[in-house]
Amino acid sequence: MKFVKKRMFGVVFALFILACAFILLSILNFYRELQNKEASIQEESLLDLSQFTSNYMDVKLEGYLSTLYSLSDLVLFKDVKWENIRDRLNAIVSRQEFLHLGLSSLDGRVWSTDGSTEYIIDISGRPYWQDLLAGKAVITDAQDSLVSSKQIFVVAVPIMNRQEQVVGIVHGAVALNEFQGYEDSRFEMGSYLVFVVDNTGSFILRDHKHPNAWNYSTIFDELEDSGKEQVSEAIRRQLAANLPVQTEAVISGKEYMLCFNPLSMNNWYTVVLMSKEDINQHIAVLLDNNINVLLIQVLIPLILLCLIFFFFIRKKVKMEMNKEYQLREKLFSDIEGFIQADLSEDKVVYCSQSLGLPKLTMPFSHLSELYIHNKVDEDYQERLTRILSGENLLELYGQGIAHISQEYKAKDKNGKFRWFQCDVHMEVGDNQKLIGAYFILRNIDEKKQMEVALKTKAERDSLTGLYNRSTATDLINVFLHLNTHLPTVNHAFVILDLDNFKVLNDTLLHKTGDKALQDVSSILTNFFRREDVVCRLGGDEFVVFLKNISFEVLEPKLQRLMEELRLTYSQDDKSVTISASAGVAISPVNGTTFKELYTAADKALYQAKHAGKSCFRRAVNP
Predict the structure, then answer these.
(1) How far is Cα 218 from Cα 200, in angstroms, rounded to an integer?
(2) SS3 124
(3) What is the pTM of this model?
(4) What is the pLDDT of residues 336-371, one digit of tens each?
(5) For the chain, how big is the Rg over CA atoms in Å?
(6) 395 Cβ partners below 8 Å, 6+ apart?
(7) DSSP conformational letter for 215
(8) Which end of the chain is more exposed for a tag (fewer CB within 10 A), N or C?
(9) How far is residue 98's CA from residue 521's CA, in Å, rounded to a whole number?
């Protein structure tokens, strides 16, 4: 009997040891998997930051060019002299990041101002001067300023007359230490660096948080000094081909993740670096689950289970599974929600409590339908249902696509609609048959709102909020190109130019003139349809493009508009009345591009001006 008991005890003890070893290996494997997934997420986030920093800097450079093109239009169309445009230049310098801003004649002399002091500098010897004379806009690499000790880069555009001849230059300089990149709060746990280099690796801008971080001429000097010539050469080749690069390198004995991302405006790259030590430290914080404590919590209940009755084992296993789920909740506390599913069996393995869904055992298809119906904005429900269906995900995986990402609007924990991103990672299980999927839901509302704000800033005129010239040109040309197959449908192109506006500015000053431009913009926005394109070309000239409308329908509308645009402004004992004259071109009769329609409408506007102003004329059919 004692032998039997000892043998039974030995079997139970052996089973206990095997169970403990199995649980230990499972926990360690689980820990490693989460560690690898979090490391992958951190690397993707670093790449996202690099791409977003490039987009952010592209928007800033486009903003500089847009400002200078607006000035060139103002100078060209109004024949404004230096004395009259000084106030406008000083206002732009004080409001934006220009170190100084000015106008140049064709001999290379620039009349420039920094907001308080005026300079005359000669740029005819600069390498970019010939490009400007050839009609090209330029954004230069870093160079020394001609009027200060600062390092700058130059942004300049030619002033072109109607014959496409260069008649002058708008010239601006931006201090490198004022041109800073985007900062992301997600990386506050470590020290990441942001540089701007050209395609040879030479530094254009060093990280302002760590100005003494790298005292090298090029970014490759440090890599080569660390014995990484092969990495350096590989990066050089991809930069020369204007390709993005993501790699790892040892720099001064320290491992780094590096992300190179090209700017679209010139041969510049943003470089975002973060040490592997900081990334691993952040992962360790996220996965701080105290392995020893976890082992005790598992092994002690297991010993008790061996001493009691076997039929309690299943219940205890479920309890341990719940503890594992609680651990997952803790590990994924920095995201909005997490779902693990078995796509082959249409089964939900795990669903985080933060999603607020019922604690019921249900197929994955039902859980997905429940989440989309109760949480997701109606405009995104149909698309998200199609993309996240088990059938679609299995089909994508069969095509070799194991990762997808989708943005949408949904309710957050407080019931407010926010922007979310759902990242789906798929992989085959150990049996090579079952396909598992991990759904990670992140709140990206702040990032999305910033993207919308940057896009609006790049597309809109800063004073009136209307489309700027560049954006309107693209919108109109794209629309006309896509609708060339409908030759019987007419569209109207209207140029509006304010009458007596110079008198208003000279008599009641520019502040009243700006108020008048804003009033006119408000009238145009409210007067025309939402689908029409309303644009401020520059100065007091506006363009309205009306889709799918004939001149017979447009004519009475323009007559009413002429009355609404008759505005009077008073100050002290002075009073000035402005009005508007308009030229109208009809597409496709007068043209099928922005340039053709603008030329036709401009001739009609000239006739309206000579007919007594405050009226409109239609372009003559060719």
Answers:
(1) 8
(2) coil
(3) 0.40
(4) 777 888 888 888 888 877 777 776 677 888 888 888
(5) 33
(6) none
(7) -
(8) N
(9) 27
